[in-house]
Amino acid sequence: MVELLKVIIWPLTLLIIVFKFKTFFGSALNRMQSLDASATGISMTFQEKIEEAKTLLNKSKGALQNRAKMSVSESNDSAYKMVLDVKASLLDFLSEKARSKGIKPEKYNPKSLSTHLAEIGLFTLQQQKAINTVFDLANSASPSITEDQAQIVEDLYDSIK
Prior knowledge:
The chain is mainly α. The chain is 68% helix and 8% strand.
């Protein structure tokens, strides 16, 4: 009996965990566009965030049309580097906004800082959603990101400023 228990304890534990968190796993699987398991690790891309970014961009198109749109630089920078640069620029932008109101940005993570700045009226709810979406996309980006995907992230960032 003890030998049988030793054999089934881990599969049983795994089943209990899966059933306990089935809604979490189900929603994650629904959002997942692809899963790539290789020697370098596991990489997931979430199409939902790209779609959310497109929706936010469509909502702010009027503001973008009033602004002179900057073209993508024709340098040899990769799309991945472009996304990382956008993330760094957004962090600087948030920090500058926070400091202008006497808030120490280093006390917050980027998402909670954007929430706090929205609460005090520096950002609209739509801008806050766009900020969080840019961070989510930048954090989940991989070196294999396409130019089109990177351009969406950059366009969304431009709509925030």
